[in-house]
Design goal:
The complex is a heterodimer. By secondary structure, chain A is mainly β. Chain A has no helices and 11 strands.
Chain lengths: 112, 115
């Protein structure tokens, strides 16, 4: 059974704060790590797909890093805005069948 | 907009009812998925269809019956559900199932309540 853990479960920050959260996943048979942003009542939206150890991706104020050897990825948000409030999901793709295994997500609330 | 739509968005049904959830993708993808999200749990894969063929049934009870008439449409037929089946049901699509990147695009989900 593949285990994908995200921490913290939830996070409250003030507008303008920078923040980060963690996704840990099995370090063997790794293929890809996905980050999704999920606003309430909307579709999960793909942020990044990361495949290479040491990879770093950036989209505006959001960036992510990947360490496949130790099995973790960080998502960073610089200068948080209220519209960043959402659940951030990570999903691991690995093993023999490439299925996505999801974490429970980190719920971010940015207070104005 | 992700290009994946789901209807209805909300559904309340009794345990003896029969209902269906519908998913449509406008992305030209060949794989479609049903996921279930229960409270406090991660997304759980239920079914996978690749080129209209079911390739995965993740030990889902037979009261859930999927149907994929073509690569753009996916249904989940529901009958004699239990209250514990109340959850958010998400549909997703990808270019092809089984690819190593397997980037999936999600619909907004159907919030199902079983009374």
């Amino acid at each position: 059974i593949l285990n994908v853990e995200q921490s913290p479960q939830s996070l409250h920050v003030q507008e303008g704060d920078s923040t980060n959260f963690t996704c840990s996943f099995p370090s063997s048979n790794f293929y890809a790590l996905h980050w999704y942003r999920w606003e309430t009542a909307k579709s999960p939206e793909a942020l990044f797909v990361m495949t290479l150890n040491g990879d770093e991706k950036k989209k505006g104020r959001i960036s992510a890093t990947l360490n496949t050897k130790e099995g973790y990825s960080y998502l960073y948000i610089k200068g948080s805005q209220p519209e960043d409030s959402a659940t951030y999901l990570c999903a691991f793709s690995g093993g023999s069948n490439y299925k996505l295994t999801f974490g429970k997500g980190t719920l971010l609330t940015v207070n104005p | 907009e992700t290009g994946v739509t789901q209807t209805p968005r909300h559904l309340v049904m009794g345990m003896t009812n029969k209902k269906s959830l519908k998913c449509e993708q406008h992305l030209g993808h060949n794989a479609m998925y049903w996921y279930k999200q229960s409270a406090k749990k991660p997304l759980e894969l239920m079914f996978v269809y690749n080129f209209k063929e079911q390739t995965e049934n993740n030990s889902v009870p037979s009261r859930f019956s999927p149907e994929c008439p073509n690569s753009s449409h996916l249904f989940l037929h529901l009958h004699t559900l239990q209250p514990e089946d109340s959850a958010l049901y998400l549909c997703a699509s990808s270019q092809e199932a089984g690819g190593p990147l397997n980037e999936q695009f999600f619909g907004p989900g159907t919030r199902l309540t079983v009374l």
